[in-house]
Amino acid sequence: MPRRSILSAAERASLLTLPDSEDELIRHYTFGESDLSLIRQRRGEANRLGVAVQLCLLRFPGQGLLPDAVVPVSLLQWIERQLRIDPECWPQYAEREETRREHLLELRAYLGMESFSLEHYRQCIHATAELALQTNKGIMLASSVLDLLRHRHIILPPLDVIERICAEAITRANRRIYKALAEPLSDAHRRRLDDLLKRRDNGKMTWLAWLRQSPAKPNSRHMLEHIERLKAWQALNLPPGIERVVHQNRLLKIAREGGQMTPADLAKFEPQRRYATLVALAIEGMATVTDEIIDLHDRILGKLFNAAKNKHQQQFQASGKSINAKVRLFGRIGQALIDAKQSGGDPFAAIEAVIPWDAFAESVTEAQKLAQPEDFDFLHRISESYATLRRYAPEFLAVLKLRAAPAAKNVLDAIEVLRGMNTDNARKVPADAPTDFIKPRWQKLVMTDAGTDRRYYELCALSELKNALRSGDIWVQGSRQFKDFEDYLVPPEKFASLKQARELPLAVATDCDQYLLDRLTLLGTQLATVNRMALANDLRGRHHHGVRLEDHTA
Asked: For residue range 164-185, what is the model confidence (pLDDT) as tens digits?
């Protein structure tokens, strides 16, 4: 069976694409004085142009002039600007292959470049296998191989060889990854992982298929079902820290590949690959279910808040006619009282002139019932949906492994209080329960004259938990979306070792002096090129006006 290609046609074409912008032409193809001296030793403009082109191609991308290669017009024009050689003579250079070979050997010695050998092949595989532990993307691996060969002044082999190096590196990295994930497993772990490929008691699907199902609707029933899935993942009790022994990119890649296979296909894998794939599926499955549970809670809570807000608005709208009638009535009564005061009449008689006293007293009672609270908020209706949250909240809080930053410590302390109350079946909130997390909007509902209201305390805590998860002040162990911010960074121990070894993967040199030296060297080369080109243009102009060029170049 032929080896599967790891590079697309577009990726293969992009790897050795020659630069065409002026900045890149200056950076890669600016000749120094020694380069010009070497080029001028050739006889004839065609040979000088050919040597210049081969010199450019050896420097970047790192290959000599291949047979039937098409040299970009932009490169010929850039060389013409430096050497004042007519690009039209280029076809003459391509007539003799022996001349090209002789020039190539001379330029290799001049640049100190080596031919690609079997030893280089092995070194590239060893170096690329380290990168393949982080990614198996062919374009990234191939680019790394090319950069390594250029850094070591080795002439690039054909792309087919580069692709074989990458494929072999991926194979070696896969073996190391499978070993790293499978070796820490005990016999009990392996049995539990093998059970994932068996059918459930109802016989309709395997445990793995059931565990990878997504919830259908945001309600308490589906929430409880999904919590059972998370408990089943957690029951595997994988070795602590096993998710850190492999780079997250590769772990996710293995899990995705395993997720596209049937349990029967997974069972056919050799043991080490099978257990590694199942471990990756378990780690990613646990993270996915954890995130989906938190998302379900967020959506359920959002629905309850929206329902309370809608009921509040509907109640206010339904009372609109009555409120308007009362406002009009009290407006007439108020005007009658104003008139009575101005004329010195009896205010009570003025009221009774508008409405009988008994009807007035009754309208005041109705107005008090229609009046909204001073803060005019809908939170007082949220407790009507408390039963929905209560169906899953104890399991929800018990199954999540929460950690908090100092800014959200009070919220996490409140969650711990709720966990303890759920365990003890307590109905009354302890007197020492934290309350600093309660916002002023909730204060009147939670803190009543009779003490702390259990329903509103729990509703407020769950609402603040949702907000803290969104802000990152609280994170969940095993989650992907709500994980600790430190998990996105290089571990402190590894960062310290990389820094000490001066191997930090940065895009610029970490040594300030070396960085400045490189920039000054490049700037000096560019200025020298610009000066030479300006002088050549000046001499060319004088020659055009009758001044002999030899007089100025002597």
From this structure: 999 999 999 999 999 999 999 9
